[in-house]
Amino acid sequence: VDGSRVSRKVIAKTLSSHINADSIEITAVGLARDALEVLACEKFDLITSSLLLPDMYGLDLCKAVRGSPAHRFTPFIVVTAESHELLIREGFSAGVTDYYDKTHGFKNFVRFIQSLAEHYAGLVGKVLYLEDNLTEARIMSAVMEHYGLDVVRVDSAERALEIIDESFDLVVADFFLAGDMSGGDFLHNVRCGLRFAREEMPVLVMTGNEHNNMQAEIFRAGGNDFVTKPVVPEVLISRIRSMLLMKQQFIALKRVSEDMRTRATEDSLTGLYNKRYLAECSGAFLSDIANYPAWIIVIDLDHFKAINDRHGHMAGDRVLEGIGRLLKAFFRKDDLVARTGGEEFVVLIRKCTRADCAHQVGELCRLIKELKPAGFPVTASVGVATNQDRIHAGFEELLVAADEAMYKAKHAGRNRAYFADGTPIHAGV
Ligand code: GH3
Ligand code: MG
Ligand code: MG
Ligand code: MG
């Protein structure tokens, strides 16, 4: 809203040329009367007005705007060259959000509007709102909903504890409740009973301002922050905004650390465990008496270099993926399947007889040959060792024994399997 046609044009043009044209729509009017007319039929995200309008004082326009429910919280900016303290104080009580000093120029005005828009952007989140006073609950629910939050209101701590789950992003809770449980009991249950960490389920506590000595107790009970009643809507929203931001950062950080952990233990091509993970876990696997006797199987694909040479490296990768999938599906959940090198896989099998192990290995050799993971048959040579009757044998020692048995299979013509003691398990046909 600006009485000068030139100012209106310059402001509208500066804004629309510096802010993504699809994300901004500007309505420019010269009179306060016209402004109130468009505000009555349309919802706006931001209002700017000059201080002196032809038909009204800018601050009176702001008061009138604040009277309509649709624009009670819409940022209202006064653009002016005079910004002395008295005016500023008068403006804030009229509901002005901020002033822009137009002597700073229109370029800076764009920057000012952009940072304001970021600050006042709608909030996304589901709030569990615990409040036993119906009037207060109606007003604050409306404020939170106005900013885009999805609000679920309950009137007792007992009910809140019944429905709280990971679908909520945040809790806003009254500290003084009429029911048997206080806000403190509620917090204690959320943190110690349900084990929601402060970062996972932030709780904003509302207290009466006569209870300043409660603050330490609120933090001790597990509250993240508090606001005092009567709650100022802007204060509530800005606390909620920073708590949601903290939670999002926490989630992002958690995702990164989980991702790093899988990357450190997983082979990226097949999703099987990698050599490092196998080396780390094999000791515990072999010494666990519940796994005894354990078996170690070394599987090396035959003539893999020739497959790469003949069909290309991509086909080679597809073979490795296919074999990886087969191994994962073939062995039990508590066996340990790893890809330890290019075309070499190592499996640790828990607690099984020699006969059962031989049966599994023979079956596996047949399945590998039938698989045709890239359209043509692939075979493997396999060596098997065990800690049966040598319960203290370490991983390295068993791996060497299984590897030697695997080389015996290679020399004997490939597509076959041997135990470390030289007994043939499977002779491929
Ligand atoms: P053998 O029957 O004696 O085991 O012969 P081989 O060709 O399978 O064995 P060798 O060790 O000579 O060659 C292994 C080949 O595996 C060489 C290497 O280029 C290839 N290789 C290693 N890692 C990968 C991979 O991730 N993808 C593909 N496509 N090839 C790989
Ligand atoms: Mg209460
Ligand atoms: Mg090979
Ligand atoms: Mg090899």
Question: What does the model show?
Answer:
This protein has 429 residues and is of the alpha/beta class. The chain has 15 helices and 14 strands. α1 packs across α5 (106-120) and α7 (157-163) runs parallel beside α8. The termini are far apart. The mean pLDDT is 91. It binds 3'-deoxy-guanosine-5'-triphosphate and magnesium ion (3 copies). The site of one magnesium ion has 5 residues, from loops.
Features:
14 strands, single chain, six-stranded mixed sheet, binds magnesium ion, five-stranded parallel sheet, alpha/beta
Gist?
This protein has 15 helices and 14 strands. It has helices at residues 5-18, 32-41, 58-66, 85-94, 106-120, 134-146, 157-163, 183-193, 215-221, 233-265, 275-287, 304-311, 313-330, 354-371, 395-411, and strands at residues 47-50, 76-80, 98-101, 126-130, 150-154, 170-174, 203-208, 225-229, 295-301, 336-341, 344-349, 380-386, 416-419, 424-427.
How would you summarize the topology of this molecule?
Blueprint: H1 5-18, H2 32-41, E1 47-50, H3 58-66, E2 76-80, H4 85-94, E3 98-101, H5 106-120, E4 126-130, H6 134-146, E5 150-154, H7 157-163, E6 170-174, H8 183-193, E7 203-208, H9 215-221, E8 225-229, H10 233-265, H11 275-287, E9 295-301, H12 304-311, H13 313-330, E10 336-341, E11 344-349, H14 354-371, E12 380-386, H15 395-411, E13 416-419, E14 424-427
Parallel strand pairs: 1-2, 2-3, 4-5, 4-6, 6-7, 7-8, 12-13
Antiparallel strand pairs: 9-11, 9-12, 10-11, 13-14
Helix pairs in contact: 1-5, 7-8, 12-13, 13-14
